[in-house]
Design a protein that fits this description.
2 copies of one chain form a homodimer. Chain A has 365 residues and is α/β, with parallel strands linked by helices. Chain A has 2 domains: 268 residues, Rossmann fold; 84 residues. Chain A contains 12 helices and 14 strands. In chain A, the strands form 2 sheets. Chain A has an 8-stranded mixed sheet with strand order 1-8-7-2-3-5-4-6, with helices on both faces. A 6-stranded antiparallel sheet of chain A has the order 12-11-10-9-13-14. In chain A, α7 links the parallel β7 and β8. In chain A, α3 crosses α4, α6 packs across α7 and α7 packs parallel to α8. The radius of gyration of chain A is 26 Å and the shape is elongated. Chains A and B meet through α4, β4, β5 and α5 of A and α4, β4, β5 and α5 of B. The structure holds a DNA duplex (19 and 19 nucleotides).
Chain lengths: 365, 365
DNA sequence: CATTGATATGAATCCTACG
DNA sequence: ACGTAGGATTCATATCAAT
């Protein structure tokens, strides 16, 4: 990030994203969010049953003559995205049935590894006026790592917390962008035909980036990605061809007040200090021969000099021993065992790791 | 259908579906439902958090060496499906993120026209045990016409009725197949690793077929498609490689009792008789100079000899005239205008079409 | 019999740091 | 690169046993 921070960070650049990305250094961004043209093959005008015109996607940037041209365009911008992505960066791409199968196929062929396809289910989608099909009430997001073996960021606990304590699913129920959030021009018309809801981008960013990360959006539009990046303490880089969109995006992002709190700072993702049993023995937090207990004190084991524990029959790691006592194949011994606290009752074994870290300032990953 | 009825209808054939389909005549089926191998690229064992093993898809029929081999297989079976489809037939294909982008891309290239991509959202999907991604809680169905201009079947009103009076969406909430519905072998183990829920197939069939239609399922498995086809008064043709699956499917389908009622017979889809204004004039159900009224009688028009109506300023069709009176661009005049009923008050203009049909036995499409 | 609680299981691309 | 050990991680529902 340091290489590009002064030149690129938190700015919107006017121009074709393929040309603009070519000027960027390789492996420089942490995440990409891309909302490319959808290739809607609507010829003529779509009208509601009362005859009023439905103002859908008919802008000139959404016209492609055939699949070959669209595939070529897709391959070009995705190749540049792939190049500027750090090796552990991930990429989100949003589309609808008209284009998402082109995107997914091409991305798989390029070596991107699909982590999830996420369904944005819209409770207030535009109805099917003709009664000719099912109401198209969703869009699809592809979330991919750069390669199969990459160590992408995923803030599992934060997502779980934001989903009322249950792990987040691949189907997200979020309303389309309307009301105050929808940008309108001086005539009251919508500025952009496909402005995405902020809730969607908030979830995308909070699930797959860390504070300070750089997020690239090659089809910036009116800047929902930039707005949410700023709001959550992340950085953005935007490319956009239309001057009009850039102006609205800049004004919009300026007005954003970041909310930097424990959630956006990923405090929920913090893991226990990595302090081993042998280290606790070495520095006198435990001693060989000392006993560890189950919480109700119904079971006890003896610590050995090597940092394992013995139940009188076997000498095992605290994890294997707790699993054995619970009849499981795996268990976390740090959470199972308790230790005598100077005659004041039992304290969790795991608390010794926090004590060690606090007193010696080591052990945090 | 007549060509193949005696040989193929309501039977399961053992063998590779590509070879078997090649023996079939062209343009002979009304709908295809295909649940091909997903090419899940998994290795090793996946354990639940309690250490027990998760038994997913480990079948040999899901093994492919790479995308190229999978794409070739996909192209071959889809080509044969396309050939045996009648020109107004439609095709459903189900998959997950591992394969659906291969399927969609290839189908679009072959000329299939995507009508909807339907999301099967599973409230009781397998969780993500490792906390590494979003829980994969959906699968995707592609519903396509053979060509862009084909006149496919879609039972809009039936779907709306089954969805509590609201138009059906592209996101369906249906539980995975468990409990009594899940076929078990003599040892209590699931017969097929990916048996689909009957509710899903019911909805697929009821939305896109007519009574008596022939449905082809090239990956028949344990026959959910056949069971629901029989249950709704449709016919099936199945191909399946595994003898074991065929035996369970045959037994299962035998036990099905068809429920042939107004819903399965699509009585909700019946349209008003196609009888024109000029025909009503010709046979004396209306006469030139007679008046038509709005329901509250606040407006009136006069019928002309040509079957149009005049408001004293313009002579227009009943549809254009009703639209004009309502300030709309389009409206259905048959539902807007009322006609004097021999001094007994007003009756709907449209009711004359039913009267004509009843008395003369014409007009039904 | 009704209710409660324990157990089983389903199309899954399911870890990571260290030596 | 590869093996090994440490240690982090699950939701809805059906079935069946226990009260």
């Amino acid at each position: 990030m340091k290489d590009i921070v002064n030149i690129y960070i938190d700015r919107i650049f006017k121009g074709n994203c393929i040309d603009e990305m070519k000027k960027m250094p390789s492996e420089s961004v942490d995440m990409v969010f891309a909302d490319p043209p959808y290739f809607m093959q609507t010829d003529g005008v779509l009208r509601r049953t009362d005859g009023t015109k439905f103002s859908g996607v008919e802008d000139r940037w959404d016209k492609f003559s055939d699949f070959a041209e669209y595939d070529k365009f897709t391959t070009e911008w995705l190749s540049e995205c792939r190049r500027v992505m750090k090796k552990d960066a991930s990429i989100w791409v949003i589309g609808s049935f008209q284009n998402i199968y082109r995107l997914g196929y091409i991305m798989q062929n390029m070596g991107f590894w699909i982590l999830n396809d996420v369904i944005w289910s819209k409770p207030n989608a535009v109805p099917n006026f003709g009664g000719t099909r099912f109401q198209n009430s969703h869009e699809t997001l592809l979330w991919c790592a750069k390669t199969k073996d990459a160590k992408y960021s995923f803030n599992y606990k934060t997502m779980k917390y934001l989903n009322n304590g249950k792990q987040e699913k691949s189907v997200w129920n979020i309303g389309i962008c309307i009301g105050h959030e929808r940008l309108k021009d001086e005539n009251g018309n919508k500025v952009h035909s496909t402005q995405k809801p902020e809730k969607l981008l908030y979830k995308v960013i909070m699930s797959s980036t860390k504070p300070g990360d750089v997020i690239l959006d090659p089809f910036f539009g009116t800047g929902t990605t930039g707005a949410m990046a700023k709001a959550t303490g992340r950085h953005f880089i935007g490319f956009e061809m239309e001057e009009k969109y850039i102006k609205y995006a800049q004004k919009r992002i300026e007005s954003i007040n970041p909310v930097i709190d424990d959630i956006t700072n990923l405090k929920l993702e913090v893991k226990p200090p990595k302090v081993s049993m042998s280290r606790l023995l070495e520095f006198g937090y435990l001693r060989p021969g000392q006993k560890l207990y189950s919480k109700d004190k119904s079971k006890e084991v003896v610590i050995t000099a090597s940092g394992h524990v013995s139940d009188g029959k076997e000498e095992l790691s605290i994890h294997k021993m707790s699993a054995k006592m619970l009849g499981l194949m795996n268990h976390n011994g740090w959470d199972y065992f308790w230790v005598e606290n100077k005659g004041e009752g039992l304290m969790p074994l795991n608390s010794l790791r926090y004590k060690y870290q606090k007193e010696r300032g080591e052990g945090q990953e």
